[in-house]
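USER: My hope is that you can spare some time for a protein that puzzles me. I am handing you a single protein, as its sequence and its fold in token form. Walk me, if you will, through where the backbone shape changes along the chain. The protein I mean follows directly.
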Amino acid sequence: MTTDQASNPADYAVGYGKPPKAGQFAKGKSGNPRGRPRAKPKLTLSRAVEEPTADIILQEAYRKVKVRIGDKQVEMTTMEAIARTVAIAAMKGDRHAQRAMTAAVQKAESDKAATQVKHFESVVDYKKSWEAPFARADAAGIPRPDPVPHPDDYIIDVRNGVVRLEGPLTDEEKVEWDKGLRLRDSWQKRINELTREMKSEPGNKGLRETRLQIQGKFDALTETMPKRYQKTLKNRLWDD
């Protein structure tokens, strides 16, 4: 309301867009102090229903189901059951099943071979990438880096074009791996101590039994390790 309207209320006609003075907002104060309400998010049900996620599809594909084979019920995944059904139909002469099965096998073999070649090449490149850092460390007389996975843990089978990893793949695995190595080394240290003790007490059967038990633990742990990590037990006591 303007100054003129306030001083001459009789001249101010109340109507649309002209509320009475008592209903007007105070000067300098917002008529909507909370602001405009946020629009509520809308869920498009059609997309949620018509476009299942990859996780749901994979969950169903690998869900365990029971299939009767002869007189027995065998548990297998949905995909295994489907593949078996198609294979049986193909063997019975179903041409559509035969073509589908042949095409699926050929694609699976091709994809597997391509993945194998790619993995082989990546491992070869990975091993080569560490040659220079190792050489610099050797030249400087300092310990070599200890990456995870370690390039020396990758064993390359050139004849068959495949590789295998004989060591930890992640930092978490290396923590457990190192625990095993430290445990084995502690057993070697204890064997050395028992060897000295037995020289002082050659007739002590308890020391002998303890030594043989530790040797057995050492051997069992070492046998589970790849060749690069294996060690020969020193001061071995032969149980003769």
The mean pLDDT is 85.
